[in-house]
TrEMBL record:
<keyword id="KW-0436">Ligase</keyword>
<comment type="similarity">
    <text>Belongs to the GatB/GatE family. GatB subfamily.</text>
</comment>
<comment type="subunit">
    <text>Heterotrimer of A, B and C subunits.</text>
</comment>
<protein>
    <recommendedName>
        <fullName>Aspartyl/glutamyl-tRNA(Asn/Gln) amidotransferase subunit B</fullName>
        <ecNumber>6.3.5.-</ecNumber>
    </recommendedName>
</protein>
<dbReference type="InterPro" id="IPR004413">
    <property type="entry name" value="GatB"/>
</dbReference>
<keyword id="KW-0648">Protein biosynthesis</keyword>
<dbReference type="InterPro" id="IPR003789">
    <property type="entry name" value="Asn/Gln_tRNA_amidoTrase-B-like"/>
</dbReference>
<dbReference type="Pfam" id="PF02934">
    <property type="entry name" value="GatB_N"/>
</dbReference>
<dbReference type="InterPro" id="IPR023168">
    <property type="entry name" value="GatB_Yqey_C_2"/>
</dbReference>
<dbReference type="Pfam" id="PF02637">
    <property type="entry name" value="GatB_Yqey"/>
</dbReference>
<dbReference type="InterPro" id="IPR006075">
    <property type="entry name" value="Asn/Gln-tRNA_Trfase_suB/E_cat"/>
</dbReference>
<dbReference type="InterPro" id="IPR042114">
    <property type="entry name" value="GatB_C_1"/>
</dbReference>
<dbReference type="GO" id="GO:0005524">
    <property type="term" value="F:ATP binding"/>
</dbReference>
<dbReference type="GO" id="GO:0006412">
    <property type="term" value="P:translation"/>
</dbReference>
<comment type="function">
    <text>Allows the formation of correctly charged Asn-tRNA(Asn) or Gln-tRNA(Gln) through the transamidation of misacylated Asp-tRNA(Asn) or Glu-tRNA(Gln) in organisms which lack either or both of asparaginyl-tRNA or glutaminyl-tRNA synthetases. The reaction takes place in the presence of glutamine and ATP through an activated phospho-Asp-tRNA(Asn) or phospho-Glu-tRNA(Gln).</text>
</comment>
<dbReference type="InterPro" id="IPR014746">
    <property type="entry name" value="Gln_synth/guanido_kin_cat_dom"/>
</dbReference>
<dbReference type="GO" id="GO:0050566">
    <property type="term" value="F:asparaginyl-tRNA synthase (glutamine-hydrolyzing) activity"/>
</dbReference>
Length: 482
């Protein structure tokens, strides 16, 4: 039997903060824009320009640190990390090495097999670099400084994760916290959340850490999971062959599902860190921290607990509805409108439409939750007409799909397209009689005990009524006449 290996993983996660302006100047921090249009002398590193710290960056970093159970450095400082690269206009990056804003926190995660705490070593503020665009056609590289100076918080975990499942659980938890706080949208595809994976393997039972590698260029949770599995196998293969793992930075190619070496791993000394002479220390008072704490919104776990306790939802439904702050907000607004309309059991009814139809259509359309177009008012209106028996469930689902795509007013749409259920019992009875008269054999089967044929007869009536009858009423009338 071969050796058993354990994977040891720590993460460095960069979260781009959702401030209007950059960290040290007044330029727009918005994603996109024509190249080099969100720039000024400060974020393009012009000689003589001076940085001025954006207070909102500190407040967002503090909010995130407190939500992740971190301690706060009452005095934190900025340092210069020196390196030379075309996307780094000053030839140094302003970051925090010696006195970061927060340290010593943790996040609790849960996977199918484990529930544990992942310790956070530190969180620090820094500026992002620009972006290089490699033009294969012209065989050159172009640089866009729009992203240069966009504020980041880097969250450095301890090496507490042991599998790709734990890594994804940690990242999902971190992303949810950021989104609930409103400090970042955490869109991996736009680079507003980026994770570098530090990974090593060691023999199972060993307490010594193996030689680690750092993997970059990971822009989706699926790519992160694949990269972890690929790097784990690569390192085990090296050890099995009696070779050494080199400490290096590797770039993951998700198309080829392979990583390749970029450079040998640097230490802090390679960056020649020293305190930034242009920025004074940031003093964070108890009163300031208290104000941030008081402003903290209800986070996912608290919200899910409240949905169970106050709204009577199941733990699973509450968990699903709170996996996106945007979805939870839409749900709560819908529930509030149903209360105004005095619809009984509003929370459960709204939950069913969000969990059943909305999540299904999002998946079918390949859409993000934030792309939902319909308004809470329109969904509440549709639920209300269902409750009054004006449309049956089948018609309501068809109308909902149109509302999902175009945000039409469902009440007007039902009226204009003649989709209201036929509630005239006399008209229904005539159709029921016609169906019974046209299916004597089925009637005979029912009367000899084969009651399952009732479903067929209901279907025939619904067909005659073009789906505009209430199935329960049809069922009752058929049962009475049979």
């Amino acid at each position: 039997m071969g050796k058993q290996y354990e994977t040891v993983i720590g993460l460095e996660v960069h979260v781009e903060l959702a401030t209007a302006a950059k960290i040290f100047c007044g330029c727009s921090a918005k994603f996109g824009g024509a190249p080099n249009t969100h720039t000024c002398p400060v974020c393009t590193g012009m000689p003589g320009s001076l940085p001025v710290l954006n207070k909102q960056v500190v407040e967002y970093a503090l909010a995130l640190g407190l939500a992740a159970n971190c301690r706060v450095n009452r005095t934190c400082k900025f340092d210069r990390k020196n390196y030379f690269y075309p996307d780094n206009p000053q030839n140094y990056q302003i970051s925090q090495l010696y006195l970061p804003i927060c340290y010593g926190g943790f996040l609790e995660i849960e996977t199918a097999s484990v529930k544990k705490k992942i310790r956070i070593h530190e969180m620090h503020m820094e500026e992002d670099a620009g972006k290089l665009i490699h033009d294969a056609w012209e065989d050159c590289s172009l640089v866009d400084y729009n992203r240069s100076g966009v504020p980041l918080v880097e969250i450095v975990s301890e090496p507490d994760m042991r599998s790709s499942e734990e890594v994804i659980a940690y990242l999902e938890k971190l992303r949810l916290i950021c989104q609930y706080l409103g400090v970042s949208d955490c869109k991996l595809q736009e680079g507003s959340m980026r994770a570098d994976v530090n990974l090593s393997v060691r023999e199972a039972g060993s307490s010594e850490l193996g030689t680690r590698t750092e993997m970059k260029n990971l822009n989706s949770f699926k790519a992160i999971a694949r990269a972890i599995e690929g790097e784990r196998e690569r390192q085990i293969e090296l050890l099995e062959e009696g070779k050494c793992v080199q400490q290096e930075t590797r770039r993951w190619d998700d198309n080829k599902e392979y990583s390749y070496a970029m450079r040998s791993k640097e230490d802090a000394k390679d960056y020649r860190y020293f305190p930034d002479p242009d920025l004074p220390p940031v003093v964070i008072s108890e009163a300031w921290t208290k104000r941030i704490k008081e402003r903290q919104p209800e986070l996912q776990e608290e919200k899910a607990g409240r949905y169970e306790k106050e709204l009577g939802l199941s733990a699973y439904d509450a968990w699903l509805l709170t996996q996106s702050r945007y979805l939870a907000d839409l749900f709560e607004q819908t529930v509030s409108l149903l209360e105004e309309k005095k619809i009984a059991g509003g929370p459960k009814k709204a939950a069913n439409w969000f969990i059943g139809e909305t999540l299904r259509l999002l998946k079918d359309r390949g859409m993000e939750t934030e792309e939902i177009r319909f308004t809470p008012g329109h969904l509440a209106g549709l639920i209300a007409v269902c409750e009054k028996g004006e449309v049956n469930n089948r018609t309501a689902k068809k109308v909902f799909e149109i509302m999902f795509d175009k945000d039409i007013d469902p009440v007007s749409y039902i009226e204009e397209n003649g989709l209201k259920s036929v509630t005239d019992t006399g008209a229904l009875e005539r159709v029921v009689d016609k169906v019974l008269a046209g299916n004597p054999k089925t009637v005979e089967e029912y009367q000899t005990g084969k009651t399952k044929v009732l479903g067929f007869l209901v279907g025939q009536v619904m067909k005659e009524m073009k789906g505009k009858a209430d199935p329960q009423t049809v069922n009752r009338l058929l049962s009475e006449k049979l």
